[in-house]
Amino acid sequence: MDAIEILSQLGSPAGRADPYPLYARLHELGEVVEAAPADFIVVGYDAINAVLRDPGFGRPDQEIFDREFPGWDENPVFVQGVDWILNLNPPRHSRIRSLIARAFTARRIAAMEPAIVKMADDLLDAMADNGADGAAVEFMHDFAYLLPVTVICELIGIPESDRESFRPIARDVAGVFEMTDAESLPVINAAAVKLLDYFTELAATRRAAPRDDLLSDLLAISESADGRLTDAELLHNLTLLLVAGFETTTNLLGNGVQIVLQDPAAGEAVRGGSVPPAAFVEEVLRFDSPVQLTSRIGYQAKVGGLAITEHSSLTTLIGAGNRDPRRFADPDVFDPLRQDGGPISFGGGAHFCIGAALARLEGTVAFPRLLARFPKLAAAGQPTRRERLVLRGFETLPVTVA
Ligand code: HEM
Fold first, then answer.
1. The domain 3-400: what is its CATH number?
2. pLDDT in the model for residue 143
3. Could you please report the per-residue DSSP string of 167-213?
């Protein structure tokens, strides 16, 4: 099979369901493959790492939109998206990211632990009630989906009474991370407008009466930073925090539980204490990465022995890098105690995931509590996957808990 054939299979339903054998084929072809002129797929761990850390490779930003997508600014989600730090390059990226990072501190994240424990335990209580008589419960909906969205709402400072209505909206906006087709855009745009309206109102409330939350901190920073963070930049990046922090972490939880359902010994090891929860989380991130890929714009450079051209497109296949046999011994074996850990699931360099510590905290709280609470946790029928390429996870994952 050549690279074109492998990539076309990756886009098929079977390839999406299990891309790993196809990634293994790509690794045989090299660290980087050229899918078409000026279209590179970066599959090797070291090559991905090098590309993400090299400031010469930029994110596709507004300049690209202007050039390749006339009329983009008629789409509210792109109007917000061109301000997202994820889609910015220096100097705007550095300015806005550093201001957001000032509110998104390690202290604030660590301080959330007791609240996350409580949220996780409340959800486990509900699962225990619903599944007490051996009935199947839906792990994705009842836990994997509810925990991260509740956590991010709590972090930002979204009142409890508003959270329920929030979830479907955040989920719709997250659709923009996929290769958006024209048909899904109206739904994504409508959700983006609702989200922005909501944040605009909430920001006015917090400005008048600040609280101990991320939004109040961001507002204080934007006011004290001499206009270095405009209202639009602040509000648009709030949307990003919500959508980037939600489905990704949902998938970390779902992918981890599926591993345990298929290999009960992996769960037993966490339950019994021979595998530390943090090591389990790192290996889930590596073995079945919630974010499978990201992209960069090329400049004249060499990566993995290939000459990259100016303005070319680079797809960095994070999910493949995490299974690179040049980097990991027995990459297809789930081994939380491996000595060669270090998944690239949160990216690297200037755009390294700002929420990595929060996602790790959620995972290290959730997995051991879930496993200790439900020693009989078992699959209850076939799970279904989300039809997605960038964010990898399940739509449904039915389990029994008693
Ligand atoms: C397991 C969960 C998560 C995974 C796998 C993940 C993965 C990633 C990756 C790969 C990137 C880099 C993208 C690139 O370089 O193009 C990234 C960036 C980002 N992530 Fe996460 N993420 C997760 C959770 C979160 C959470 C919980 C939040 C927020 C609360 C968050 C917010 C962000 C933001 C704002 C960026 C953009 C940073 C920038 O461009 O400077 N993520 N994430």
1. 1.10.630.10
2. 97
3. HHHHHHHHGGGS---TTTHHHHHHHHHHHHHHHHHHHHHHHHS--SS
